[in-house]
Amino acid sequence: DAGVIQSPRHEVTEMGQEVTLRCKPISGHDYLFWYRQTMMRGLELLIYFNNNVPIDDSGMPEDRFSAKMPNASFSTLKIQPSEPRDSAVYFCASSEADTQYFGPGTRLTVL
Amino acid sequence: SQQGEEDPQALSIQEGENATMNCSYKTSINNLQWYRQNSGRGLVHLILIRSNEREKHSGRLRVTLDTSKKSSSLLITASRAADTASYFCATTRLNFGNEKLTFGTGTRLTIIP
Fold it and tell me: Which end of chain A is less crowded, N or C, counting CB atoms within 10 A of the terminal residue's CB?
């Protein structure tokens, strides 16, 4: 298996623009997680899904953030409109039990 | 707030020495895991210890868990340059299921060749 796949790996955008991050989990995993990592706040769980259904979105910062999982092999995290404070590395992870498998991350820079 | 706090925040040792990192957490747990993150990469799972276990080994890794003190330690023996990375503990809360992890702040380990 190729592992968790994320795209793009790097994204530079201007404030106010819409940003869409994409994730393909490991086949057969029924949980999918979105995290954000910054120096100041560390690794934060934003939202997670079970069998494509959002279970806990309490970590989503505000209404500018939204996440979807239309099927078992694809999820998106969207920021609209983006702000400079959204600059971070965003990770997607998937799991079928206790252990989570992380993707390589998307480094987002909002100018 | 973060469930786990790692100590120390940063550690530098000579290659071949042993490295010990500690993690403290606040609430009762189902299990505790350690992950490694190399610079610019995603986290990689290293080892899991359940709340009814006290010690676990995997290769050069040794993890201990003291639920009475709400703490865990990760020992890496005979360190190598490739062990240079950040190490995070992560916990699942008792009665909250095993899928949601809360990560600590991490220890940045540097192995000096």
Answer: N
Mean pLDDT calculated for residue range B47-68? 96
Main-chain dihedrals φ then ψ at residue A86, nearest 5 degrees:
-80, -5
* Domain covering B6-112, topology: Immunoglobulin-like (2.60.40)
Q: Which of B23, B43, B56, B92 to mutate to test the interface with A (most CBs of A within 10 A)?
A: B43
Residues A84-95: pLDDT tens digits? 999 999 999 999
Which residue type, as a one-letter code, is found at position B63?
Answer: V
> For the segment B67-108, what is each residue's pLDDT rounded down to a tens digit?
999 999 999 999 999 999 999 999 988 777 778 898 998 999
B28 contacts: CB under 8 Å, gap ≥ 6: B51, B67, B93, B94
